[in-house]
Amino acid sequence: MSVFIELLRQYRDELERHYDSHITDDIRQAMAAMLRCQTEQQGRSQWFCSHCHHDDRLPLSCGHRHCPQCQHRTTSDWLERQKQKLLPVHYYMATFTLPYELRELARQHPKALYQAMFTVASSVLKDFAQTEHKGELGFTIVLHTHSRQRNLHPHLHVIVAGGRYDASRQQWHKGNKRYLFNAFALAKVWRARLLDAIVHDDVMSLPKSVPNKWVVDCRCVGFGLPALQYLSRYLYRGVLPDKDIIKVTDTEVTFRYLDSQTNTHQTRTLPVLKFLWLILQHVLPKGMQRVRDYGFLRGNAKQTRVRIQLLLLALFYCTPHKEQPVRSKAVRACPCCDHEMACVGVSRPS
What we know:
Pfam families: Y2_Tnp, Zn_Tnp_IS91. This is Transposase zinc-binding domain-containing protein. GO terms for molecular function: DNA binding; transposase activity. It comes from Colwellia chukchiensis. The protein is an alpha+beta fold. It folds into 2 domains: about 5-65 and about 330-345, no CATH class; about 85-240 and about 280-315, no CATH class. The chain has helices at about 5-20, 25-35, 70-85, 105-110, 110-130, 185-200, 225-230, 270-280, 300-315, and strands at about 45-50, 55-60, 90-95, 140-145, 150-160, 165, 170-175, 215-220, 245-250, 250-260, 265-270, 290-295, 330-335, 340-345. Helix 3 (about 70-85) packs antiparallel against helix 7 (about 225-230) and helix 5 (about 110-130) packs across helix 6. The longest helix has 21 residues, at about 110-130. The protein starts with a helix and ends with a strand.
């Protein structure tokens, strides 16, 4: 059982009393799902081994995307789908950061703000590419809401394929290995457009003070797979894995994190309730997609990707990817004979 879920079960009533005005319906639903996960309330799956005829029943997982016990297969499936889209070109990682002064908006209006961030970041990249008149970009945007210390810190990571595809000429334009766009220019446009989106939104309003300088980082990350693997670790496995919770007492929780400045592990100790809220504040609004594909990497652009792969096959002598539907099945080894067991049914509580 997850350490976080055990703490949530033990301190739920106290947490709800202390943070009642901050707990949204989405957070309440996430809490309820996690507390049902792998319990009799969730139901059971029945497994059968055709080799030794052993039969077993196991409690079902909740499947909630914020549950630390679930979504491992979802992460693996996403990574496999992204691997099928990889091209034999250099990739870039662009990071669009939200300044500290606007983070309160993420607490008050997360759905509106995060949607605006996706819309603005994608439009900025598309428009910068359009000015070069070389064709369409392909990129994937991933929303992260926390810093390494797990504080609220919304930002977008964007994996961009290094090149453009001109559909009218069916021509691939190779990108610069070390340069995508000027990061300072990206930051200026990112700031202006996001502030404009907030001003014209029906529910959000700007704080009194907004910094003039925003940060967009843009760098080459090689051939893409390491960056995808890095992002996949944070997509569907919860905010803090159990292995990083190193000490729990009746009053405090200590966890470790990797400090980006020193590249060493540091520890942080918080009262139990504050720790629980630190994690729960990152629950996303219902219907909010954390990952989105754009350009020739979007889901309905498969034919375009095949044409690009054939072009690159001629240029770089690579083997084009044959995209297949990716969804791994649940498997379990028999505890008696170690053969693969089959799931033969699911029972739900009445």
